[in-house]
Write a structure and sequence with these properties.
This protein is α+β, with helices and mostly antiparallel strands and about 100 residues long. It has a domain of about 70 residues. The protein binds zinc ion. Zinc ion binds next to loops.
């Protein structure tokens, strides 16, 4: 189910939950029964994790606007080993470990 936005001339904005891809251009208003025209809004990208979005934005920007440096960056200090990639298959978690 997805939430679709409509605008009723009497009641204003109306939200209706319908199966994805089945929203008609005009529906009967659930409150007054009048015709409501579908409206479109931007996706709710603002609800994403800000740190994750900053990393994604930085990676995207580095494709077209790479950082210019005047010297070789210092080697990163030895830190903890990165966590292993998360296994997707849950059956892998039940396998014996060394
Ligand atoms: Zn209405």
């Amino acid at each position: 189910m997805a939430t679709y936005g409509y605008r009723c001339d009497v009641d204003g904005p109306v939200e209706v939950r319908l199966p994805m891809g089945t929203a008609p251009a005009v529906i009967a208003c659930p409150d007054c029964g009048g015709s409501s025209v579908r409206t479109y809004t931007a996706p709710l990208l603002g609800l994403a994790d800000r740190r994750r979005m900053a990393v994604i934005d930085h990676a995207e920007a580095s494709r077209t606007e790479p950082a210019v440096v005047s010297s070789i960056p210092a080697a990163p200090r030895a830190t903890r080993r990165p966590a292993p990639a998360r296994r997707i298959d849950p059956r892998a978690l039940r396998l014996p470990r060394p």
